Amino acid sequence: MKFFVDTADVAAIAELNDLGMVDGVTTNPSLILKSGRDILEVTKEICSFVSGPVSAEVVALTAPEMIKEGRKLAAIAPNIAVKVPLTWDGLKACKVLSGEGFMVNVTLCFSANQALLAAKAGATFISPFVGRLDDINADGLELIGDIRTIYDNYDFKTQILAASIRSANHVSQCALIGADVVTAPPSVIKAMISHPLTDKGLEGFMKDWAKTGQKIL
Ligand code: E4P
After folding, report:
1. Where is the active site (predicted)?
2. Distance separating alpha carbons of residues 153 and 161, to the nearest angstrom
3. Which of 47, 119, 172, 191 has a C-alpha 20 to 30 A away from that of 200?
């Protein structure tokens, strides 16, 4: 499973990239706002050291404008994935941009039918939002499973990019279900390492080691 980092915070991406944890990056207008940076400038900087797909989202609402914005974003670097919303205009833009050879990430997916439409429109990635479904008392992980089944039934090549990931548990569950990619905030990726027995075990080893009076270096 690939790990994308869901942020436009360059320092946070670079830190995880040094650990080999970054197969790609996703951004959205809210994350650009949070970064306080210009979208073109920050996306270019991310692409200067991340070689995997970097999603940059269009903000137009009509297909012709989305296509123009998509082409401009795609010109930033060859590894840009143009992110379009799951609307009919978004799907039209997806069809055109993917036909021109650009990677397209169709975002704001909340149902299996929407994922089916995105695959038919030639999406490279579909982004189902796990956490936002959980927020309304629906089951975000169930949607990942449904899309996996549908895509496998018909051998769709669109990759399932599980988004709106809120916890380390979401990541492992998505991996078990078979999502192709999980995009998670840096805090969630960091939380994946935590286990109380690791901390307790290390503490015990350190105490016993001190009693030996030995040194390795
Ligand atoms: C990523 O592509 C999505 O925009 C993002 O995961 C949404 O996450 P949120 O629901 O935590 O805002």
Report:
1. 83
2. 18
3. 172
Q: Among the options 83, 120, 200, 215, which is catalytic?
A: 83
Domain borders along the chain are 2-212
- pLDDT per residue as tens, the chain (217 positions): 999 999 999 999 999 999 999 999 999 999 999 999 999 999 999 999 999 999 999 999 999 999 999 999 999 999 999 999 999 999 999 999 999 999 999 999 999 999 999 999 999 999 999 999 999 999 999 999 999 999 999 999 999 999 999 999 999 999 999 999 999 999 999 999 999 999 999 999 999 999 999 999 9
Superfamily of domain 2-212, CATH level 4? Aldolase class I (3.20.20.70)
Handedness of CA 20, 21, 24, 26 (dihedral sign): negative
Atom from ligand 1 closest to the CA of residue 184: 6
Task: Tell me whether residue 120 is one of the annotated catalytic residues.
Answer: no
Q: Which residue has the least CA distance to atom 9 on ligand 1?
A: 164
